[in-house]
Amino acid sequence: MKIIKGGVTAAKGFKAAGTAAGIKYEGRKDMAMIWSGKPCVTAGVFTSNVVKAAPVVWDQRIVKESGTAQAVVVNAGIANACTGEQGMTYCRETAEAAGGLLGIPADSVLVCSTGVIGMQLKMDRLIGGVRAMVPELGDTPEAGTLAAEAIMTTDTISKQAAVQIEIGGKTVTVGGMSKGSGMIHPNMCTMLGFVTTDINIDQKLLQELLERDVKDTFNMITVDGDTSTNDTLLVMANGEAGNEKITKEDGDCARFFEALHYVCETLAKMMAGDGEGATKLLEVKVTGAADKEKARVLARSVAGSSLTKAAMYGNDANFGRILCALGYSGVQFNPDKLDLFYEAEGKKLLIYRDGLTADYSEEEATAILDHEAVTVLADMKEGDASATAWGCDLTEEYVKINADYRS
Amino acid sequence: MKIIKGGVTAAKGFKAAGTAAGIKYEGRKDMAMIWSGKPCVTAGVFTSNVVKAAPVVWDQRIVKESGTAQAVVVNAGIANACTGEQGMTYCRETAEAAGGLLGIPADSVLVCSTGVIGMQLKMDRLIGGVRAMVPELGDTPEAGTLAAEAIMTTDTISKQAAVQIEIGGKTVTVGGMSKGSGMIHPNMCTMLGFVTTDINIDQKLLQELLERDVKDTFNMITVDGDTSTNDTLLVMANGEAGNEKITKEDGDCARFFEALHYVCETLAKMMAGDGEGATKLLEVKVTGAADKEKARVLARSVAGSSLTKAAMYGNDANFGRILCALGYSGVQFNPDKLDLFYEAEGKKLLIYRDGLTADYSEEEATAILDHEAVTVLADMKEGDASATAWGCDLTEEYVKINADYRS
Questions:
Q1: How far is the C-alpha of B124 from the C-alpha of B351, rounded, in Å?
Q2: Residue B308: helix, strand or coil by DSSP?
Q3: How far apart are CA A15 and CA A238, in angstroms?
Q4: How far, in Å, are A6, A41, A105, A172 from residue A240 at the CA level?
Q5: Which of A107, B44, B111, B391 has the most neighbouring CB atoms within 10 Å?
Q6: Are B306 and A226 inside 8 Å of each other by CB?
């Protein structure tokens, strides 16, 4: 597997664009488009929120009914959630406008929105954006970056990743971009993710692989525990790599899965580290758990604990909060048996063993916590399962950002 | 039901004291004691955290095995959690010391701790505190207030409530005190609550009533979603009112339940409003839910949403966050049917109806949110069940308090 630069335009046959359409604010990029010269088998996972934005309903139908798409239109600023019938009309009109200009059916155009809930989109702005982007579609890394920047909301950095693998002598590329920095939580909160690949693969298999992978990537990140109405992760595969079609879980499939996993995990970690107001990435590794799902639940509970996150911000080695968060996760375990460590840049410090505080130096612990990426390691000593969750610290800045997000 | 001033010393036969024992800091009150002249039937509910502090284990055994106690010793500063065998020894030694001085068996002395996890108590300080308090035990409101102040940690106000009812011509009093302002969440997070009453009642019935009532009071408050290792709510009834013993759920029992509920709800609301760094009390009322448990889950989800809480702090009428929190609660409902209102000081404003934004004035909404107590009302229009949850706003001050709690 070779890590390369780039994002959604890295794979053969994909083009992208970004523009400032004035969806909510003037003068900032707020619309993006992805397009493939050939129809793509398309897989998707969507928010588990009962309140689903109109574009989620639109895309879910396409993924479920045809599993085929050729373009995506994304807007930031307004979420098109809680917008009733009119919201669905906007999705159809956007898809029709893009389809018309691109010469493809409206129901092969996916739409995604992110932003404020309950406001109606201005349709003329949206259509204007589509018209501006179609002639600008490009297959360069710069075009991909433009798109990645256009989907940002409170993100401070754009998020892209790409890798290449060999399958049957053919080079297969997987690339992606995502946005999200608040409301990121297990179950895919206000995050949008787009992965493009030129692999030739069966749609059902692609969907299965995606659903499996998000359990260890996008669903293992948390910023504030809130799960949005709009979360969407789409994977489009156009087959242009020319490999023999992958239809079952063989060695080629495993290699592709590894590439998909790399892109998803990289994007997920970038989102966690870019959490609203965050100063550091918090990684929580649980090892020795009784089973995989228990490991995931324990890791997420620590990564999502407000008190742990606030202590991380203060470089306060308050491991009681970690124990506490493990304890209320809902998973049963023996608190008198587990070990806890802090880890950063190769330094690892035992802080708790077998139910008692370890004899560690507070200065050393504080020094380890004072890094941009800190790992909390919990060894449950009950079995062989492990899982990793990612989050960030909780800062005054997070509160400032969210006290008046709409203005 | 007559609301009276006072707390744990309001009911006949109860005395209390508070002292500065130097448990963790010098010069502040940090130990309290409650004592009844006669043995009390005793009920309790405890943290659901897998990691339980030693005093929780001690008290659970007493409530389960004898259901009888005559005194409580409380310390703030150190939680006596994750302290292994030694932690249990401290509980026994504290109970023995208090029991010896009070002339009662050690296993009729309950102990409670709140504070930092993972530190060992200094036994000489603890015993010193017990010795100082026994001669100071008093039955005045002032003695109750002293105790209520001594159990505070990051609380900004002490919390007490009391009421009187008539049962069979006898006056029955129920009074209580509690502490807790962070880690308060459904499932009783770092809160300690003590209710004393002179009613004559069966122990099993008292335990049943308590377990029923916490579902709508202490378990409906949330500050930060974290659930502590030490949460404890104890009710002690010494029978000194002289009423005929209540043994079944009759009219007298219903009157007592109402009094118990008033004390528990009042203490719970005081804790929510005194959430760490909070500037306002957030009340979330869900009506028209399909059933009671669904109503509770929906209300708690909104009261616990970081994004809703941050918006409340900024007086930002961002109802999308409320819809979103209802939507990820896990309860199924039709988002196109519900209504949302903001309410404060008798003013009620419709903001969302049947899946669409209502035509409300942002200025009016902001004015309503700019109160010290704000209610969010969600009418699900699906059934007859309702529930209320309480929380607070999320502020920069919360982060500051928790970034370095231990120092």
A1: 59
A2: helix
A3: 12
A4: 18, 12, 20, 9
A5: B391
A6: yes
Report the distance separating Cα A17 and Cα A19, nearest Å.
Answer: 7
Q: Is the pLDDT reported for residue B182 higher than 50?
A: no
Q: Which domains does chain B have, with CATH numbers?
A: 2-273 (3.60.70.12), 281-403 (3.10.20.340)
Query: Shortest CA distance to B165 belongs to which of B249, B246, B243, B255?
Result: B255
Question: Does the distance separating the beta carbons of A187 and B307 come in below 8 Å?
Answer: no
Task: Select which of B9, B42, B47, B190 is catalytic.
Answer: B190
For residue A101, the 8-state DSSP code is H
Interchain CB distance below 8 Å, A336 and B227: no
CB contact under 8 A, A324 and B226: yes
Distance CA B342, CA A71 (A): 41
pLDDT band at A15 (very low <50, low <70, confident <90, very high): very high
Q: Could you tell me the two tokens for B405? A: 């709690």
pLDDT of A406: 53
Name the token pair of A37.
């010269």
Specify which of A221-225, A277-281, B381-385 reaches the highest per-range mean pLDDT. B381-385
Catalytic site includes residue B196: no
Per DSSP, B107 falls in state G
Rounded to whole angstroms, the Cα distance separating B50 from A382 reads 15
Query: What is residue A269's three-state secondary structure?
Result: helix
Strands A109-116, A68-78: parallel, antiparallel or unpaired by DSSP?
A: parallel
Q: What mean pLDDT is reported for chain B?
A: 91
Q: Select from B307, B311, B396 the Cβ nearest to the Cβ of A400.
A: B396
Whether residue B39 contacts residue B60, with contact meaning beta carbons closer than 8 Å, is answered with no
Residue B352's nearest CA partner among B377, B383, B330 is B377
- Cα–Cα dist A84/B23, whole Å: 59
> Alpha-carbon distance B87 to B79, whole Å?
10
Instruction: Report the candidate in B336, B325, B318, B328 with the shortest Cα–Cα distance to residue B382.
Output: B336
- Laid out side by side, the sheet with A356-357 consists of A356-357, A347-353, A339-344, A373-379, A281-289, A385-392
pLDDT in tens, A109-165: 999 999 888 889 999 999 999 999 999 999 999 999 999 999 988 788 899 999 999
Q: Give yes or no for A307 touching B (CB within 8 A).
A: yes
| Residue in the structure block whose two tokens are 């989800």 | B301
Residue B25 touches chain A, beta carbons under 8 Å: no
The residues in B 157-176 lying below 8 A from A, measured between CB atoms, are: none
Q: Say how far apart CA B270 and CA B177 lie, in whole Å.
A: 10
Phi, psi angles (nearest 5°) of residue B264: -65, -45
Q: Which residues on adjacent β-strands are paired with residue B350?
A: B341
CA distance A360 to chain B (A): 13
Residue B402 has pLDDT above 80, yes or no: no
Give CA–CA dist A287/A353, Å, rounded.
Answer: 14
CA distance linking residue A348 with residue A344, whole number of Å: 7
- B367 shares contact with chain A (CB less than 8 Å): no
Give kind and range of the element (H or E) at residue A343: strand A339-344
DSSP designation for B244? P
Choosing from A190, A222, A229, A266, the catalytic residue is: A190
DSSP B260-284: HHHHHHHHHHHHHHT-TT-SSEEEE
CB spacing of A323 vs B227 below 8 angstroms: no
Is A290 at the interface with chain B, CB within 8 A?
A: no
- Asked whether the beta carbons of A323 and B117 are under 8 A apart, the reply is yes
Q: How far apart are CA B22 and CA B28, in angstroms?
A: 7
**Is there a contact between A396 and B394 if contact means CB atoms under 8 Å apart?**
no
Could you report how far apart the first and last alpha carbons of chain A are, in Å? 45
Q: Which residues of A touch B182 (CB under 8 A)?
A: 307
